[in-house]
Design brief:
The structure holds two protein chains of two kinds. The mean pLDDT of chain A is 85. Helix content of chain A is 55%, strand content 16%. In chain A, the strands form three sheets. Chain A has a five-stranded antiparallel β-sheet, with helices on one face. A five-stranded mixed β-sheet of chain A has the order 7-9-10-12-11, covered by helices on one side. A two-stranded antiparallel ribbon of chain A has the order 6-8. In chain A, helix 1 (7-53) packs antiparallel against helix 4 (139-189). By secondary structure, chain A is α+β, with helices and mostly antiparallel strands. Chain A has nine helices and twelve strands. By secondary structure, chain B is of the alpha/beta class. In chain B, strands 2-1-3-4-5 form a five-stranded parallel β-sheet, with helices on both faces. The longest helix of chain B is centred in the first third of the chain and has 13 residues, at 10-22. Helix content of chain B is 38%, strand content 22%. The radius of gyration of chain B is 19 Å and the shape is elongated. Chain B starts with a strand and ends in a 6-residue tail after the last strand. In chain B, helix 2 runs parallel beside helix 3 (59-68) and helix 6 (153-164) crosses helix 8. Classes of the chains: A alpha+beta, B alpha/beta.
Chain lengths: 442, 227
């Protein structure tokens, strides 16, 4: 049976066993100490009664009379006064038990009552040679024992039932949640990665497991989506230039007149294709590789880039502003960080109209460093900002401008490789790309 | 020039050997690492062109072995892997330059020429000059026909590189790597704009153009009568 194989059931069985064992020990201790205490109390009372009969010392007749008076009363004691040879003189204990402490069945009464009506008897030799015995019923002791037995019996039975029921409930709950995980896993195996494991909200281990698995699934779904999209876009994006390349080669082979020109155009197409492949290769290398990190003088890197791009921006009638704090140091790969900022700058240069100002800057922020590239161009609509980081994704408006659609994907990959936070913000109007180097990377 | 090509791809090797011979060089070819090591150890080549991925002994090991044996011929690595760390690895092993496949033949030719003519102890040169253009590396000044030319730091660096390779073809990629430390291909015309600005300062208003565009290859700095 599946239920008995669950960890919850095993655990509750184990705990029920331990509980029973501990309950048994407590029961034995209570039973034993209560019995002894009660019996000791009876003994003390018997001795006191015997002493009372003898004080002040009576004659034989006087003692016989005291015994009779006592027996007529409502006391729960039993007595025997016997001669030196054991002949009974007064009392209701017969025959005479040995001297000292002994146990005697009580004469008469119901058969089933007899066992629990044992008498505890004390006997002593009187100075005149007679024997005096005083006894008392042990009923109180046995009643207490029975009460303890039934109380413990009921209590233990109830807790055992509760433990087993609780165990079954916990196990069923556990099984149900494991089943939910299994169902999700099976659904995912059939190819639908959008399924998620339900989270109960209790924050326990199973919840954390479910949350981690869900995070893993989200990452996988993202990667699968990426892969699907990349394959689709790669096929789509490469078909057009390959077709053009083929056409050019074909017309070159047919028409010797324009051959030179067609071949040059074919070479340009091939170069464009190679660019795309290089970018893909580079993305893969960045994602898979472990670049060597070293301290990078970010201020120098950024102002150097600004110097590099200033002639170009001026040629396009733009104003390139630099707001770089001096002496900023971050940890990273110099060539990769250079490429990241170059891609951002070139993005701003190619996707905004000539004359649009661009700003590049960096400043300390808390324990980290914040760097940004901002333009006053058309910007990116909020709902598109996430998507432009994907490979081959291009905004409708920029389909006509040259580019592989891999520039920002490369920026994203480099930022991730460095553990940097990349944010695309609204510069109102324009796009502001912020890169935050946390203290560990700064 | 006497060149050794160690390349296992037969098609590419045939194409390169033919091209290099047409450019006036003597070329030996080896198709694997051992054969290449054997040839390189025997003859004194001006430049070795070594593919990194070779059957048997790989390109890195070939160059390490040659350097260990004291053979100092400049080495140009060819590679299909264009990663940043691959390049550093190649230079650490004793390579002098690095070219990622696929490349334009003009690019290879320019780099081979640049490697072969690298003057010894070039770091200690304090003065570079071509025709009436002079650069003082200590004072960081440039004059043409005795007239002072003010250059931005990056323009100075660009002109220094052109002067150090005067008379040779310098490609756009060579400039990107050596002047700007860009080991990737920017999408905008960074090099072109810097060269045209430099040209405006160095050539405009003076007799004879010094900075020339070499169609389909790159740039070259030389006095007109030099070729």
């Amino acid at each position: 049976m599946r239920l008995t194989r669950t960890e919850g059931f095993r655990l509750s069985t184990l705990f029920a066993g331990i509980f029973l064992f501990a309950g048994g020990i407590v029961f034995a201790l209570v039973y034993w100490t209560t019995s002894h205490a009660l019996e000791d109390q009876v003994r003390v009372e018997i001795r006191r009664e015997a002493a009372e009969l003898m004080r002040p010392r009576p004659t034989v007749e006087g003692l016989m009379m005291r015994i009779r008076i006592k027996m007529a009363g409502s006391g729960h004691f039993h007595y025997l006064l016997a001669g030196p040879l054991g002949n009974p003189l007064a009392g209701d204990i017969a025959p005479p038990p040995p001297l000292g402490w002994s146990r005697q069945p009580l004469a008469g009464g119901e058969e089933e009552d007899r066992a629990r009506r044992d008498l505890l008897v004390w006997g002593e030799r009187l100075p005149n040679g007679n024997g005096l015995w005083v006894g008392a019923s042990l009923q109180r002791v046995s009643e207490a024992q029975e009460a303890i037995q039934s109380a413990f019996g009921l209590g233990l039975a109830a807790s055992l039932v509760a433990a087993v029921a609780g165990g079954i409930m916990v196990s069923l709950g556990f099984l149900r949640r494991v089943d939910a995980i299994n169902r999700t896993a099976r659904a995912i195996m059939t190819g639908d990665l959008s399924h998620r494991i339900p989270v109960s909200g209790s924050g326990d281990e199973l919840d954390r497991l479910a949350q981690n698995l869900n995070a893993m699934l989200a990452r996988m779904e993202n990667l699968m989506d990426n892969l699907r999209q990349v394959s689709r876009d790669l096929a789509h994006d490469l078909r057009t230039p390959l077709t053009r390349l083929r056409q050019k080669l074909e017309s070159a082979s047919r028409d010797p007149a324009g051959r030179e020109e067609e071949i040059a155009a074919a070479l340009r197409e091939a170069d464009g294709l190679l660019d795309v492949f290089n970018a893909i290769l580079r993305l893969a290398q960045i994602e898979a590789g472990q670049p060597t990190f070293a301290p990078v003088a970010l201020s120098g890197l950024l102002s150097g880039l600004a110097d590099t791009y200033r002639p170009l921006t001026e040629e396009q009638g733009r104003f390139l502003q630099t707001k770089v704090e001096p002496d900023l140091l971050v940890s990273g790969s110099h060539p990769l960080l250079t490429q990241m900022f170059v891609n951002l700058l070139e993005n701003a240069l190619t996707h905004t109209p000539a004359g649009t100002p661009i700003e590049i800057g960096a400043a300390r922020d808390g324990h980290g460093v914040r760097a940004w590239v901002e333009d006053r161009g058309p910007g990116i609509p909020a709902q598109e900002r996430e998507r432009v980081l994907r490979r081959f994704y291009r905004l409708e408006a920029s389909r006509s401008t040259p580019g592989s659609g891999l520039g920002l994907a490369l920026v994203d990959a480099i930022a991730q490789r460095h553990g940097l936070r990349l944010q695309l913000l609204d510069a109102g109007p324009g796009l502001r790309v912020e890169i935050f180097f946390p203290a560990a990377a700064a | 020039m006497k060149l050794l090509l160690i390349e296992d791809d037969t098609d590419l090797a045939t194409y390169l050997v033919r091209g290099l011979k047409e450019a006036g060089h003597t070329v030996d070819h080896a198709a694997d690492g051992k054969g290449g090591l054997f040839l390189a150890a025997g003859g004194s080549y001006d430049v070795l062109v070594v593919d990194r991925r070779l059957p048997g002994l790989d390109g890195l090991s070939v160059v390490k072995t040659l350097r260990g044996a004291g053979i100092k011929s400049p080495v140009l690595f060819l590679t299909a892997q264009g990663g940043v760390d691959d390049r550093v690895e190649g230079l650490m092993a004793g390579g002098d330059d690095y070219l990622a496949k696929p490349f334009a033949f003009a690019e290879l030719l320019a780099r081979i020429t640049a490697l072969a003519r690298r003057p010894p102890l070039s770091e200690q040169t304090t003065r570079l000059a071509v025709a009436d253009l002079e650069m003082d590396l200590v004072k960081r000044t440039v004059t043409r026909a005795g007239q002072r030319i003010d250059l931005q730091p990056q323009e100075f660096k660009l002109l220094e590189y052109l002067l150090r390779h005067a008379g040779q073809v310098v490609t756009r990629t060579m400039l990107l790597e050596n002047v700007w430390d860009f080991h990737f291909d920017p999408k905008t015309s960074v090099v072109e704009t810097h060269v045209s600005r430099l040209r405006a300062k160095v050539d405009k208003g003076f007799d004879g153009e010094l900075i020339h565009t070499v169609r389909g290859a790159g740039y070259s700095l030389h006095a007109l009568d030099a070729d």
